[in-house]
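Just wondering, does anyone understand what follows?

——
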Amino acid sequence: MATYLRTASYLCTKISIDLNDEERRSMTIRDSLAVIFRQALEAAVEAGDLTIDEIPEPSLERPREEGHGDWACTVAMRLAKVAHMNPRQIAEHIVNHLPENDMIASCEIAGPGFINVVLNDSSLQEIVNQVRREGENFGKGTLDTPCRINLEYVSANPTGPMHVGHGRWAALGDSIARILRHAGYDVDEEFYINDQGNQMNVFADSLVVRYCQALGEDIEMPEASYGGVYVKELAQQIVDEEGDKWLSVDPDERRAAFREKGYAAMMASVKETLELFGNHFDTWFSEHSLFIPDEQGKTKIDYAFEAMKERGYIYEKEGATYFRSSAFDDEKDRVLIKTNGELTYFMSDVAYHYDKMQRGYDHLIDIWGADHHGYIPRCQAMMSAWGYPDALEVILGQLVTLFRNGMQVRMSKRTGEMITFRELIDEVGTDSTRYMMLSKSSDQSIDFDIDVAKKKDASNPVYYVQYAHARICSILRKAASERGIDDTLPTDDIVSALDIDGADVSLLEHESELALMKKMSEFSEFIAGAARDRAPYRLTHYAQDLASLFHSFYTNCHVIIEDEALMNARLCLADAARINLALTLSLLGVSAPSKM
């Protein structure tokens, strides 16, 4: 292995070419290194050491093993064919032409041609100023090409209260939306209301029966019905408010009225629960609206059907109308209209997704339950039929199993039925519920331990992270108090009053300080990766790592000390960690308390 040292007391002047001060300050460490390595490539070509027609953008990645440095550049291996040279030899030429800079402490050529980079402490120390300068915009990305996304999730049927699975999708969808926006995407959140199908009539009929029973009639629930306690409670509410006025009403009129009453009550419950959980949808889309004619007398169903027919993917067979989905790798063609003229559920989905694209979205993301896995190919086929082969992305949310005292919990103490999402929130709280729901990848099931989620100690991961944030706020209050500053002010005002912006962060040299700064320097990558892979769970891991590193820093490096210069530098580091923790939690939809 060969090791090369490249150190200097000033930032390479070439880095500032074509960049103003603000642009240069906002560059990530990865971006800054990419500039340096591109300059090295240009210099190697100019010197005649490399012969290539086009200089590629240098690729940088984190080494898998910490002992291999802070970053690894792999461009030498990519150039081997075009440069007709051994990649290790290319790597040597690149390293030999690295411009002087204050970022790189050393480079090591390893393996087939990796250039492993160890950063100067100053590169990490600058992250403190960057976090504090950028605040809630830290780690924010931009896209070369704007992308407008429709993110549809939860979409619970308005026939009953939300279950715990809906809660996982609520947490997942909201956090994905937050992360995508932070990464530069334009995202609209949408709830699809299934208010058209026969299940609404079944719900209405169930409500009618419970209403009649509440008024003393001897009538049994039909076999196909909703038998939950909530139906009895809603029926009793109608009795309390309107008495027996519906007993003598025409059955069809009564069913229509009870259908509307049931729908309104369930949607109010859903919206109230989601509002409590912190979800805010841009659109509540009614399935029923797909069937309402416009001024031309056409429904959204008609428009979607005609668009598919124009492209030649509709045919009739034995009195039914089919979509030729097998042309797009679906296992068989799908029925859109039955022989009796009734539309299938799939026809509604066809129209709904076509309508989304007509609203100007570039990409659609749907979050479904795992039991809908087999439904994906036909839906992606319909998108391909309209010429949008890659526009629909489906995320499947796996099951949530509740545990209490080490035993699986199925039933609510109040109703004797399945625990609802609202009951879980009421018992555990929004923050713990969200954090636990986001703690694993969406393709993994979750064992939700209610006892752990309620604990106020380090065994509860969200409490552990929130406590780190609260501890930082406590440190800042203590520093303020010792300087005669009102420590009851909001934390941001306390930080402003401490007047530590000009602190000398080069004093932050302890390994605990450097480790904390290094973790903060990785935040932009975590955001980009979590956005790309729709993986909020990675931010729960990041938050716990950051909290752990802060606790280590707090243990090993006293902040409130006599050395005022070092104290100010450490206050800046603590404040940067506070900002980074709060931002991470906000992207998960979790609060960052200043006191606990």
Observations:
- The domain at 2-119 is CATH 3.30.1360.70 (Gyrase A; domain 2).
- The longest strand covers residues 186-193.
